[in-house]
Model the fold of this input.
Amino acid sequence: MLKRKQLIGANFSFQHHPFRWTAEKLAAMGFRQLELWGIAPHLDLFHDDRARLAEVKTILGDNGLTIRCFTPEQVLYPINIASGDKAYRDASVERFKRAADISAELGSTYLFLTPGRGFECESRETAWVHSVESVNRIAAHARSLGVSCLLEPLQRLESNIVTNANELQSFWRALDGDDIDIVLDLVAMATAGDSVVGYFERFGSRIAHVHVVDGTPAGHLAWGDGNLPLDDHIAALSAHGFAGTLTFEPFGNGSYALDPVSAWRRSLDAIAPHLDKADAE
Done:
């Protein structure tokens, strides 16, 4: 059985609320660690001045929260570390090197990365080379600061580089260093036709973080709003001795942003039978 303290909070769906309000609500749900989605108005890569960083740190401290991973928004332009446009690509890498600086300042264990996407009219191989080079540059800078990286595949609508477990394994093996761990996103897994068992066969204990999301199979929905067998997936994580962290990522339904607390509480209630509360802090 998974431990309650493995389940961490995140600010997904809270983007239309101030960060202090968000932190207070997540702390009230019993969370002590967060995945921090790097978006405005909380903390994005374009408004990360000293005053905002200090404010975020103060809010975290006031609510007894620490950061497990910093996850800057990175699926949409102008951020794209694999862009076929070199100027955009280089600027994106520099932004993510800054994200590593932020991660270090916040005491985050991980900086969260995705592979980006190349031009659809150019070869996948070209985009692959660009992405590997960019991830290596970012990870090297993060490593120099004592920050490790997480790597998550994307759905085909989001990327043309790494969209399933086989591609993820090949990409991961092409990277420098041995401190880049794997994210298992249950919707991305389902849309690719992959499985929890398959992920553990490929990556084992290097799976460090899981996004628990429902879908049809796509969607990034709160638990119960899709048709994925989430009970089975969570049981499989437990059976394989998963020792990392997991969180919810509900933003596939516009109503979640109107009442994020309700979406999170429904997911908390659904996962509760799978968690051993004996060690809850």
About this structure: The mean pLDDT is 96. Residues 165 and 194 are 7 Å apart (CA to CA).
